[in-house]
Each structure stands twice: as structure tokens, then as C-alpha cells.
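Thread: "does anyone have the structure for this chain?"

Original post by V.I.:
We have the sequence but no experimental structure in hand. Need at least a predicted one for the grant figures.
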Amino acid sequence: MRFWWVNHKQTFRHEVENGYIWCPKVKKNGVRNHYYETLREVRQGDLIFSFAFAQLQAVGPARLACYSCPKPNEFGKVGEAWNDLGWRVDVGFQKFRTPLRIKDVIGKIAHLLPRQYSPIQENGHGNQVAYLSEIPRALAAALIDLAEPSLNVLLGDTSLVREETAPMTPEPAILFEWEERIQTTILERVDLPETTRKALIAARRGQGRFRQEVHRIERECRITHVKNSEHLIASHIKPWREATDAERLSGANGLLLTPSIDHLFDRGFISFGDEGEVLVSPIADTDSVSKMGISLDRPIFAGRFNEDQKHFLDYHRKQIFLKAAI
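Reply from O.Q.:
Generated one for you, C-alpha cells below.
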């Protein structure tokens, strides 16, 4: 279990009441930001503290690992300056009955603040450039003792926290809703022939023209080496929901994967390097990944990729893979 502190600022009400944290992937100038990249390292069961208006307001466990997601509509004008695509973590926030004013207790916790990338200053003021910062367990324990000791249970067994807070489905519901909206838009488009609209919809499920195009390039699962097409999913490298029409149908934007490997790849727990090396996210559950067929005791190589595939894999590593770049 790791511990995190989020500085909400204007989005506090939206995020805490709706149970998530969200930030753009890059700053306005296109540069990556350490405090945004940290979301990529949040795993299910990690504990997240909410700070806004000079007070610690809530705490809760991450329900799922981070994922790529559009900017929440409820941000409205507050989020106009941010890019539309960002990182999201669903959180089971519990508000403190009495918010903890940090300036009042700074003398008790200042020595526990991280030396680098601290979410607050030693005088108790928030760090204006920080969104999500990792904090040590000792600070997390001290904050709960000061704010609401009854929530000490959240510091306990990580596996129990994960089991109690995990949603019924491993896939975030908001991603399904996002794809449903895209599909509706495609069906309503009059600039596309009906055959193309049908092909784009089928591609969402890895079927139709897209699957045929992937089969022209791929013959088996890159990791398990299963060849029987009945057991293989045509998986998009750049997700269908984030792709253009042409990319949704491009064979170079696909791999044939067994269902468990498809899940790990689609959610960013694994990726591939240009030379074929299999990359495993530092937040992936090692026991689960090993049982799914990915050995962690030796390097795994998935074979060569063509130049077009490398283009899409670069996107996957930067925009989907769960590993902070800075």
C-alpha cells in the first residue's frame, strides 16, 4: 500500500462527491508534470487524502488502478484550460466529520513531510504546483490520528481494503459510457457510408474488417503463443475510444491476444518496447501477472514489430501504460 495527498483546488466538490481524482496528462505547454504523472502509479487499495481550502477534507482507498479518461463534464468552465484527455483514479472517499486545518497541526507533522515533492510547505500552506504527491506511511497514520482515529482501519491489510472497495467489474464503467457515446455519434454520421459505420462499430469489439486487417499482420498471441483464432482477441494498441476512424480500422493498430493478456494490455499493466521487450507496470499485481503467463524472473521478448506498429506502441507507452515517465 502507498499513500497519496491530492490538492484539489477548484475541483474539490466534483471529485470528492463523485469519487475520483482527475488531472490532464500534460501541462498547457505540452510538457509532462511530475504531479500528474504520479497518478499512473496509483494502484487499487492505495490510500488517498483530500486537501482543499487549507483543510484536510477526506480520505479513501483507490477502487481501481489509474486509467486514461476524458475530462469530467462537471468541471465546466473550471477545466477549460486543460486538455480533454487525462488520468483518472476512482476513489472511495470518506469525508472527515470535522475537516483538519493543517496550519493548526503543522508543528506535529512537519518533520514527516517528504523532502522532495511535498504536497504542502513547512508553514502549512499548500504547494500550489502540486496535484498528487506521495507521502510516507508515518505521515498518513499521523493525519488519520489527528483527523479521525476511527478510520485507522484504512491503514490495515491491503488485500482486505482492495476486496472491500473493488467494484463488481474490473473495467471502469465510465470507459463503457465513453465508448457508447462515440458509437452513437458514429451511427448518426451522414458523412460515412453505412458499411464504414458498421465496420467502425464492429472494430470496437475487435471484429469485422479490423480483425481481418490484424490477421494480415499477426498470427498468434505475442506472449502466450496461442494460435487458435477462437481463443484470440483482436486488441487495439491505441484504444478504439481514443483513435481516429482510420486508426480504428488499421491492422497496424492491433495485436492478437488471449483474453487475460488483452486485459493487462488494455488497462496499461503491460506494454511492449520497440524491440519486442515486454514491459510490466510497476503497479501490476505480480502474482496475478505471473499466473496470467508473464514470467517476471527473466526478460520476455514478443518478436519484431513493423514501423507502423511501433508508432501505435509509442502511443500506448506514453498514454496508456501505467508507469510514470518522470
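V.I.: this helps a lot. The first strand starts at residue 3 and ends at 7.
O.Q.: and The two ends are 21 Å apart (CA to CA).
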